[in-house]
Write a structure and sequence with these properties.
Blueprint lengths: L2 H13 L2 H8 L3 H15 L4 E4 L2 E4 L1 H25 L6 E7 L1 H6 L2 H10 L3 E7 L2 H10 L4 E6 L7 E9 L1 E5 L12 H5 L3 E3 L5 H10 L6 E2 L3 H9 L4 E5 H10 L3 E2 L8 E8 L6 H17 L1
Parallel strand pairs: 3-4, 3-5, 8-9, 8-10
Antiparallel strand pairs: 1-2, 5-12, 6-12, 7-10, 7-11
Helix pairs in contact: 1-2, 1-3, 1-4, 2-3
């Protein structure tokens, strides 16, 4: 089996679109279609069911996919070993989230930019299930998670740090200085980022799903709304540290009964390239130094 045929098959299987696969590979769609058909002919089996404008893997295709990925990764590892490049290089697609990109990753990104300029980092902002799915599909090389759980089916992960949370509001809020209870919180106007953020979902679980939230698209918008007196928000402490220090927000007396951990994950069994292993090592070091 030719490696280029496996590469085209793996990309189509990942995105489930010949058109999108061709665009990402830099081929004409007809070339990708021909390569997949050539692979099917060599194997004597159809790899995709073609249903109108949609495709899906056949049983044979599903059995081939993990082997194709292993062979592609092994070929990349072999090329890197033969090249023996003194300076790490390559593209690394990283799943991340707003809170980490803005507040935990700058030292890591700066380090790579200056120390390893031939490593191209491509940051993709997703959260929770989207990040985990992209890692399992191979769309992301590595991905940051902020989760209560540390075991994720189909993924390997390392815990970088415990991520403290802070319940915040504008100075002078009715709950400032009081012992906050769940009953008291249910009576307040609650602010939150979109569903899918682990801390938002866990907070909602504690309060009860019938409690309404005023939703904002970003952490920055949520902070501004809280500072303007629109309500109470539960956010990662690192994202509100400056506002708490400056007095535009105050911390309320409530400790979440759950613990989040910032983690870095990748697909189980994936052979990380040298520059990816370096990224994991430096992420562990630099995030740990932040505390």
């Amino acid at each position: 089996m030719e490696l280029r045929l496996l590469v085209s098959f793996e990309k189509v299987a990942t995105v489930l679109s010949f058109t999108r696969a061709a665009a990402e590979l830099g081929y004409a769609q007809s070339s990708v279609t021909a390569q997949v058909r050539s692979l099917e002919s060599a194997l004597g089996a159809e790899l995709f069911d073609r249903l109108g404008g949609h495709i899906r893997l056949t049983e044979a295709g599903a059995r081939l996919l993990p082997y194709a990925r292993q062979m592609i990764e092994l070929a990349e590892e072999a090329r890197a070993a033969v090249a023996s490049a003194e300076e790490p290089s390559g593209t690394l697609t990283v799943g991340t989230m707003e809170s980490l990109t803005n507040h935990r990753l700058p030292p890591l990104l700066e380090y790579f930019h200056h120390r390893y300029p031939k490593v191209r980092l491509s940051l993709r902002t997703t959260i929770g299930d989207e990040t985990r799915q992209a890692l399992r599909q191979g769309t992301y090389d590595v991905g940051f998670l902020m989760e209560e759980e540390t075991g994720h089916p189909g993924l390997e992960s390392v815990v970088l740090t415990v991520e403290p949370l802070a319940l915040v509001a504008a100075p002078g809020h009715a709950l400032e200085g009081a012992a906050v209870t769940l009953a008291g919180l249910r009576a307040q106007s609650l602010l939150a980022t979109e569903p899918g953020c682990a801390y938002r979902d866990l907070f909602e679980r504690e309060l009860g799903t019938s409690v309404p939230f005023m939703e904002f698209g970003t952490i920055e918008a949520t902070k501004r709304a809280a500072a303007a007196g629109l309500g109470v928000a539960l956010l990662p402490e690192i994202t509100v540290a400056a506002e708490l220090a400056g007095g535009s927000l105050v911390r309320l007396d409530w400790q979440p009964p759950f613990t989040l951990r910032t983690q870095l994950a990748w697909r189980s069994g994936k052979r990380l390239a040298a520059h990816a292993r370096l990224f994991v090592e430096q992420a562990r070091r630099l995030v740990a130094e932040q505390g």
